[in-house]
Amino acid sequence: MKNLSIRVKITAWFSGIMAFIVAVTFAVIFWVSNSVTQKNIQDSLIEIVESNVDEIEFYEEKNYQTELHGDQYIEYLDGYLEIDDDFLDQVNGIYSSLYQETGKLLYGENPSVRADLELPFSDGRVQKIRWDRDAYYVYDRLLSGYGVDGLWLRGMVSQVQGTQQLQWLVRLSLIALPSLFVLAVIGGYWIAGRALNPVYKITQAAAQIGQGQDLNKRIHLGSGTDELHQLADVLDSMISRLDKAFKAERQFTSDASHELRTPMSVIMAQCEYILEDRRTPKEYEEALEVIQRQGRKMSKLIEDMLCFARLEQNQESYPKETVDFSALVQDICEDMALLRDKNIELDREIEPDIFLPGNAMLLTRMVTNLISNGYRYGKQDGRISVRLKCEGSILLSVEDNGTGIPDEQQEKIFGRFYRGDSARFSEGTGLGLAMVKDIAKYHGGTVKVASAVGEGSRFTVKFPA
Ligand code: ADP
Asked: What is the percentage of the chain residues whose pLDDT exceeds 90?
């Protein structure tokens, strides 16, 4: 059963149940019809026998004339019995006959004399007797009245008489049952095939995607709202998301290797230059400084990329605990205010005792990245304002009065390795804001930017309180 296809299983179940229902229905119809027919036969038997009771009379005379009325005359005791011409001796397979108490047949005929004799008389009761692979209903009436006392009137009818009427029903069911069953099997198999067609399409599309690794393929079941169409739509959007994610991943890998290649080439070039000839200590020192700077850049890049990978892969790398976010931001501001890069002033307005379930290391990185950008893209003698408050949600904003970001770049700056016009002459990897965005997301938050070229930028991170 396990190895059978769903289509065959559905067809088998459907046909089985169908056959069962049809068989039970026919059995019930047959049983009810048979019962009704048998009851009718018995009623007719009683009715005919009862109507014949009055058609028998006894006369004490010896002489009778058969020709006169069409009545029947039977010599009996000292006179004769007159059987009226209304006496129904054989009608609709029901035989009526007249007996003496001894069992001697006086008038009429009987389908089975032997069967008849075996059954004792019983007044006013339908009896059933089996004889010669047939069954008969027998109804007896003891006559009473002048001269007829002790005579028995017996009616008899074959049960087959009734069942013959049912033969057509049996024959019909014997033809209809197998035909219906075959129809049910064919119809069920066809319907199951049609219903499961989308599943085949889904399987085919999934196999094609699997074999060719081609995430551009879609199932495209077409219009429809049933469960399988819903499944296909969900799978299509899942494949689209996977496609997008894989493309982003590929882009990231290619960007990362490109970014790593540049400092690596600088390091290699410096090494070759130094080793080419004898150099002065000053030249060695300068070359080592370049190598160290490029090394740091590479190490920062690798660290950032690892951080992204961990953020995406699992939560365990960065466990969360309750962080005193106010204290964390305060400490970072105090440390960074000492930089005094470009003589920039760092002022802060930090609401105390704001706590956040999060990872202190990641949050530190996020705040540091934002403030560093403030310095990097700030103007000489400029200003950076850091604000932290809790108003329904936790809001951290880092504002500067630096270069600002053109409108069309404001969406893109959160992408990995994206670097804007303002970054042309500054150091950086293009990963800082992407990291800010991912860290905010990791803590259930969002990040937004508002900026105007030449006036400055404000980055706002929002966490649920
Ligand atoms: P980068 O290493 O280049 O700073 P980021 O991801 O931190 O990378 O920033 C992406 C780009 O966004 C930067 O190259 C820069 O053009 C722009 N940017 C980020 N912060 C600021 C800011 N405070 N003022 C102006 N431009 C900014």
From this structure: 40
Q: In CATH, which of 1.10.287.130, 2.40.30.60, 3.90.226.10, 1.20.1250.20 is domain 227-311?
A: 1.10.287.130
Q: Which of 373, 374, 394 is nearest to 323 (CA)?
A: 394
DSSP per position, 126-140: EEEEEETTEEEEEEE
pTM of the model: 0.57
- Cα of 371 to ligand 1 centre, how many Å? 11
**For position 117, what pLDDT does the model report?**
57
**318-464 sits in which CATH class?**
alpha beta
Q: How many helices (H) and strands (E) does the chain have?
A: 8, 16
Q: What is the pLDDT of residues 83-131, one digit of tens each?
A: 888 888 888 889 999 998 888 888 887 765 555 556 888 999 999 888 7
Q: How many residues are listed for the chain in this entry?
A: 465
Which atom of ligand 1 is nearest to 421's Cα? 16
Q: How far is the CA of 302 from the centre of ligand 1 (A)?
A: 19
